[in-house]
Amino acid sequence: MEGLEKLGRWGLASIEGLGRSALFLVYTLIGLLQMPFKIRPVLRQIQVIGSGSFLVIFFTGAFVGMVLGLQGYYTLSKYGSSSALGAAVALSLIRELGPVLTALMVIGRTGSAMCAELGIMRISEQIDALDCMAINPYRFLVVPKLLAGLVSIPLLTAVFNLVGIFGGYMVGVVLLHGNAGAYMASMRASVTAVDLKMCFVKSVCFAFLLVWICAEHGFWVNRRPWGFGAEGVSRATTSAVVASSVAVLVADYVITSFML
Amino acid sequence: MAAADFCIQLKGIHKSFGTQEVLKGVDLDIERGATTVICGESGQGKSVLLKHILGLIRPDRGEVLVEGRDISRLRGAALKQVRTRFGVLFQGVALFDSMTVFDNIALPLRERSRLPESAVAAKVGRALEMMDLTGSGDKFPAQLSGGMKKRVGLARALQLEPDILLFDEPTTGLDPVKSHDVYRLFFATQKKLGYTSIIVSHDIPKIFNLADHIAILHDGRVRACQSPAELQRSRDPFVRNFITRVMGTAHDSQRECVNQA
């Protein structure tokens, strides 16, 4: 009987959580449409999400590209197809690794910070203070983060891809003495507009998901079962990172299955 | 007193959190232009009651009438419109810790008025001067003392000249001198702006000098709401017991002085 009660409580809490999350998104989208539009907070968030993540994305992209170049070269050489290295590196990066790894790196670096920031604002009554001043907290706090994410993450993905392709070139061509012309030609021949479109769609969707999940976890930290206070914020942050990472991977599969 | 003399009326407010029933039918009328102090022991739901008035918490049952409109049933723009009448000083002040003192005070003006930045700067400058905070505009909240934070909070709450000001334990954690500073500024601004104020406070008996009405919250209900003089003359055993407990020391020492004389 007690087990059934627990199951019921868990079910109700899950439904409530989903509803709260959906309402959070609705209120954020309403906030997005409210005038006047202020560009300065968006630019500040672009600086936090975009410029702040640039170096991390640069190095991750470079080393992922280099590993792809290394693995790809030895694998393709076995079949006498090392000339297709450019295509293998570029397609792997543009279709999958670029958008997914960029999103995961941004979740680790900025999503967790976003959740903690909003969580601390909630427990120190700063969000209540905004409500009391009749300032829409969704418009003031969440909308700039969402817009900045939608602008920054596709751009960071492009940087990741570019640096990754260059990293693959450095290993496959400069280090392992592959054919430079074949690397570039195979890449140009195989990468189509559809691949670039898939990359763009994925990065926009991942940006949307990660800001939504991470911001919602922080914004409503007081409504979660683990409660209020510093521990509540820390557990919400962990949960936000896990949930948004899983959501990115699930969305990756769904988008790929629709766009292939 | 007629209903028109009250700007806020709480009628039969019930609120539970899980299995814990915090408010069990609170009835309270707040007189326009007066200072009403809500006091009671810790954990009696004073801050919860304040959050009901602000529409931050909705009651399970009952009405929270602000100028005749039930704030607990309002949403969106209507709720926002009612809230434009409020100024709030939270217990923890709730300053935005990533903004400077200047930006904290300027925030309501920038977000809710169409004043140009020069006018905002002038108004914030006057507020800093009034609160004895000149030269602190560039500091962040973490660099301020408790008393300074309260004054910044008061300055921010007053920026849009609210009709109703709510203070949640405005002097908690402050020494007597800093508490006195906060009360002095409160007196000065209320005299100037004539707002209705609701204060949740433990600062008894000092708060008795400030209040027009004192509401005692006990066991989820308002057990008495009277002027300080009426409360001290009250024959109600609960009120007498409360007054004796919270003011016992002062009364006893006064009585001792009289006896010695």
Please explain how this structure is put together.
The complex is a heterodimer of chains A (260) and B (261). Chain A contains eight helices and no strands. Chain A is mainly α. The model of chain A has no long low-confidence stretch (mean pLDDT 89). Chain A has one domain (39-259). The radius of gyration of chain B is 19 Å and the shape is globular. The model of chain B is unreliable at 253-258 (pLDDT under 50). In chain B, a hairpin with a 2-residue loop joins strand 9 (213-218) and strand 10. By secondary structure, chain B is α/β, with parallel strands linked by helices. In chain B, the strands form two sheets. Chain B has a six-stranded mixed sheet. Chain B has a four-stranded antiparallel sheet with strand order 2-1-4-5, with helices on one face. In chain B, helix 3 crosses helix 4. Classes of the chains: A mainly alpha (260), B alpha/beta (261). The A-B interface holds A 117, 121, 124-126, 128-129, 131-136, 140 and B 51, 54-56, 80-81, 83-84, 86, 88, 90-92, 94-98, 107-108, 111-112, 160.
Number of domains of chain A: 1
Oligomer: heterodimer
Number of helices of chain A: 8
- The secondary-structure class of chain B comes to alpha/beta
